[in-house]
Amino acid sequence: MTRIIMHGACGRMGKVIAEVVAADNDAEIVAGVDVYNDNKCDFPVFSDIKSCDVEADVIIDFSNASAVDALLDYASEKKIPVVLCSTGLSTEQLDRVREVSAETAILKSANMSLGVNTIMNLLKSATKVFVPAGFDVEIVEQHHHNKLDAPSGTALALADAINEAADGQFEYVYNRSDRMQARDKKELGISAVRAGSIPGTHDVIFAGQDEVIEIRHIAYSRRIFGVGAVSAAKFLAGKKPGMYDMQDVIADQGNA
């Protein structure tokens, strides 16, 4: 049984993860941390992580960047692994994450979905076939009109997976409105759509002469990120100090 502290317990993802864990016989949330306690959790919730005195095997974090410093201090002191899902961390915070990973295991990923992270592996294989054959590569991501950042972190992570497999030859292009010229072969276009209630959708296009290959991922609910986070927590519990990501989780499941 993996004992979990849910950091950001009363937020939308915290509640989703609580539902996922409730249906999992191999995991249990033993405590939560959230400054906004709505008293609707089936486990004790602390307003300050420093006050949390419940023993656990791993922390799942879905809070925000302002709460990460205290989380990292706690993880460092208690030597407890962290599945770190908060985004928007500063350069200083990312440096601190790497420091703490020398003391306890930390898993950080741009997207917790098992589907997205499996697609990243597919993209690396596809890139090694299509790019040398002269195919152009484009990424189009779509989200609801309330999403603030553009392009999405997931779109950038997909682009990075492609560029890594292509030995870093691509330049990311986000706007062609000021380019009155033919598309350069070294361009990797990334476009963002924000409209209505569109679910998170990511399309990767490999376009060659007379054929087009598209790889698509659609996130219909937040539950997929909760399932991925719980899988990551069960994987990370008991691991040696170091930096991990969802590719490690997928590889572990493939070897199970």
Average pLDDT for all residues: 94
Number of strands: 12
Question: Main beta sheet, described?
Answer: 7 strands, parallel
- Number of helical regions: 7
Element string (H = helix, E = strand): EHEEEHEHEHEHEEEEHEH
Q: How large, in whole angstroms, is the Cα Rg? A: 20 Å
Secondary-structure class: alpha/beta
Q: How much helical structure, as a percent, in the residues? A: 25-40%
Poorly predicted ranges: none
Q: What is the CA–CA distance across the termini?
A: 17 Å
Biggest sheet strand line-up = 3-2-1-4-5-6-12
Give the amount of beta strand, in percent: 25-35%
Task: Specify the overall morphology.
Answer: elongated
Q: What oligomeric state do these chains adopt?
A: single chain
Which helices and strands appear, and what pairs or packs with what?
Blueprint: E1 2-7, H1 12-22, E2 27-33, E3 45-46, E4 58-61, H2 65-78, E5 82-84, H3 91-100, E6 105-108, H4 114-130, E7 136-143, H5 153-165, E8 171-173, E9 187-194, E10 200-208, E11 211-219, H6 223-236, E12 242-244, H7 246-255
Parallel strand pairs: 1-2, 1-4, 2-3, 4-5, 5-6, 6-12, 7-9, 8-9
Antiparallel strand pairs: 7-10, 10-11
Helix pairs in contact: 1-6, 2-3, 4-5
Structural features, described:
The structure is a single chain. This protein has helices spanning about 10-20, 65-80, 90-100, 115-130, 155-165, 225-235, 245-255; strands at about 1-5, 25-35, 45, 60, 80-85, 105-110, 135-145, 170-175, 185-195, 200-210, 210-220, 240-245. The chain is of the alpha/beta class. The strands form two sheets. A seven-stranded parallel beta sheet has the order 3-2-1-4-5-6-12, with helices on both faces. Helix 4 (about 115-130) packs parallel to helix 5 (about 155-165). The chain starts with a strand and ends with a helix.
